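Extended Data, panel c. Modelled sequence:
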Amino acid sequence: MTTNNPGGTGRGSNAPSRREQILSAAAELFARYGFHGVGIDDIGAAVGISGPALYRHFRSKDAMLGEMLTGISERLLHGGRARTVNAGDPLTALEALVAWHVEFALTNSALITVHLRDLDSLTEPDRHRVRELQRGYVEVWVDTLRRCRPGTAEHTARASAHAVLGLINSTPHSALLDTARMSELLHRMAMNALLADHEDGHGTR
């Protein structure tokens, strides 16, 4: 997985389109300076075109952020569903789900940073769509965890999912090891946390 496709609009080849190049450059700039600290001219300069020329690809900087964050939310949801559906058993599904999110976080640190910091800068329709996709993604985790640990209360599974996603998403600030060792560490910590005994694991919803 690469950072060349923040919006999830790949063309089936390794070479990113101009639109994808713009989104990738914008993600890096937004992560470094914040959405409101970056202008259209800054993004244009990063991809070698004038700021106004960006309007041939995106109607506004808001639209750029909207496609960026909606796109990564769609990728996470579809990727998570695909990995759990194709798994042979619940534990394998949970392992695959953790591996998927760890890989995404370690290879898309700029997007993770933008998502965590600039979500509130989205227009209301885009923010609603991202939240909707996020809820769907969390429910994939909740369902997988409850199948892996029958009897776990729904609210406990949801709290566990949010906590582990928060752990993995902290990697832009905490990735102090090389990618392979950080991936192994995050995977082990996430699985240990998800499979730990919970006092209210058999409680009611």
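The chain has nine helices and no strands. This feature is highlighted in the accompanying rendering.
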